[in-house]
Amino acid sequence: MQQDNIFDAAIIGGGLGGLTLSIKLAQQGKKVLLLEKETYPFHKVCGEYISLESWDFIESCGIPLKDMNLPIISQLGISAPNGYYLQQNLDLGGFGISRYTLDTLLFNQALKVGVVAHQNCKVTAVQFEQNKFTISSSSGTFKSYYAFGAYGKKSNLDLQLNRAFTQEIKQGKDNYIGVKYHIKTNFANNLIELHNFKDGYCGISKIDQETYCLCYLTTQENLSKHGNQIKEMEAAVLYQNPRLKKIFTESTIVYQKPLVISQIRFEPKPLIEQHVIMLGDAAGLIAPLCGNGMSMAMRAADILSKLFPSNCEDEQARALFEENYRKAWHQNFSTRLRVGRLFQKLFGSTQITWLVIMALKPFPRLLKKIIASTHGKKF
Ligand SMILES: Cc1cc2nc3c(=O)[nH]c(=O)nc-3n(C[C@H](O)[C@H](O)[C@H](O)COP(=O)(O)OP(=O)(O)OC[C@H]3O[C@@H](n4cnc5c(N)ncnc54)[C@H](O)[C@@H]3O)c2cc1C
């Protein structure tokens, strides 16, 4: 008999990976615990463009996207740091919705399907012993048969689990920062643009509430050179691209203070740590310019929910589950992450970015192929 006070699955982190995994497992009748350190609703640094590959999956979680009048994005524009521009149809395309809206809808849906959720609850340690996990948090201690790390690109838990990459103390160009604004502006509903500047790029596309998301990634070094002053760096570096200067100076910012995150890194990470199974950014962060980190987190949730053992007490099932997930994860994501890392490097350099865009302009099918290599099919 299964013990009443033990959860089948404890999910650490309530972003898109954790929320959708919790819903899918609860829909199967599993006893699910979700722990999130923030309190919904809250904003997140993210470009908020979601590849259409995950539209059906989000609807299957119980979110009626089709009734929400969301912008469908079918065109991509890319500019080099000097403003040189190319525009192209997107084969699959995407849609826009703020994380503030989507994460909150999913959280409410998780509660509806029976997930036991704690907000404002920071997990401080995860320990595996005798086929069970003990999870320590600011809301108390919990037990589960399986534990999932859906805690995003960086967390105190990486250190607690002693993950290999936490030992590498690198500075400078390998550390990135992300900055996000919501703006009101005059911009097409069906277009996403990616504007490059020295050591970074900035995306703009429509989301819900007649608002646009303006979000960029650059190096920590770039910010340091400008006295850690965001506005100063924007004026000195981003405005060198005339298209970005126009957007920044001719739009109304919805919340004046930008949302900023630091220490973003793109190196490979181990997929399973001390039997804690990682998904989303905790398993590996794809370069944001590929525009599909969110779909990858949700696709991993879909894969995990389909592989999840029917009997959580069966000790033999764990090894098979982990092995099958490893295989499926590499099949689905390894190539995307490699291509993403390559492009992340190319788009850092002013000259190379310009040359790449010039070279691609006459070959729209080649650009489509490159985009396709960082995306998956609908699921
Ligand atoms: C600048 C930038 C722009 C991007 N733009 C796009 C884009 O346009 N399209 C796209 O598809 N992807 C984009 N991405 C990537 C995308 O944001 C991520 O891939 C996606 O959010 C990953 O989801 P996740 O569930 O793994 O993590 P997250 O959504 O980050 O969720 C992790 C959650 O875990 C919680 N947490 C962390 N530690 C703990 C703890 N100890 N205890 C409890 N909770 C914890 C956090 O509060 C957070 O809510 C972008 C990324 C960046 C950096």
Give a written overview of the molecule.
The chain has helices at 16-27, 55-60, 99-112, 156-160, 220-225, 230-236, 242-250, 293-307, 315-346, 350-360, 364-373; strands at 6-12, 32-35, 49-51, 72-79, 85-96, 116-118, 123-129, 132-137, 140-149, 176-184, 191-197, 200-206, 212-219, 252-253, 259-264, 272-273, 276-278. With 379 residues, it is an alpha/beta fold. The chain has a domain at 6-67 and 97-170 and 265-347: FAD/NAD(P)-binding domain (3-Layer(bba) Sandwich). Strands 3, 4, 5, 10, 11, 12, 13, 14 and 15 form a nine-stranded mixed β-sheet that branches. It starts with 5 loop residues before the first strand and ends in a 6-residue tail after the last helix. The mean pLDDT is 92. Flavin-adenine dinucleotide (FAD) binds at residues 12-18, 35-38, 45-50, 122-123, 150-152, 155-157, 178, 215, 217, 264, 280-282, 288, 291-295, 297.
List keywords for this structure.
379 residues, nine-stranded mixed β-sheet, binds flavin-adenine dinucleotide, eight-stranded mixed β-sheet, alpha/beta, 27% strand
